[in-house]
């Protein structure tokens, strides 16, 4: 007896299920993948980033979104929920539900042990296909460490890193600064 092939979902079927679901799932190549919950550290860092960016972008044509805003990577078909996304200028959505962003300018992911390899590898590979994406930021939650990727004119990505809580990361595409002291405010980091 042979195993039955797993039925693949269309993007429309995924969205219909996801919009009614109590928990979030990513979607890729016909399959849904349940997302795990974040830690207290993860939540604090994400909240701090959103507060900082929101304050800097208040009177500008930009929006900051939490992980409740789904992003579709059109070239690859990935549907995902970045921890923080920023879009400046016209916001494009997949449909009138206005819950799936197509053109983020900046994406920020707070690294978790279970997703760190994915965020650095395959997920970033998908994100790089977004023509609108100018910057990708990865933030550790167990130490002071930020990786900042900036798209270059030749479509290459330039990496800079910092491990000092006194440093500030400048996001040129949205003209904002992320001070690590603000990002890690009230976050307990064990200094080694």
Could you write a compact summary of the structure shown?
The protein is α+β, with helices and mostly antiparallel strands and 192 residues long. The protein is built from five helices and 13 strands.
Structure description:
The protein has 192 residues and is an alpha+beta fold. The protein has a single domain, classed as tt1808, chain A (Alpha-Beta Complex), CATH 3.90.1570. Helices cover 21% and strands 29% of the residues. A hairpin with a 2-residue loop joins strand 1 and strand 2.
Structural class: alpha+beta
Distance between the termini: 56 Å
Low-confidence stretches: none
Considering DSSP H and I runs of 4 or more, what fraction of the residues is helical? 10-25%
Give the integer mean of the pLDDT values: 94
CATH T-level topology: tt1808, chain A
CATH C-level: Alpha Beta
Largest sheet: 6 strands, mixed
Strand content: 25-35%
Radius of gyration based on Cα positions: 17 Å
Q: Give the full name of the CATH homologous superfamily.
A: tt1808, chain A
Number of strands: 13
Distinct helical segment count? 5
Q: Element order, helices and strands? A: HEEHEEEEEEHHEEEEEH
Total domain units = 1
Shape: globular
**CATH architectural group:** Alpha-Beta Complex
| Main sheet strand line-up | 3-6-8-9-10-11
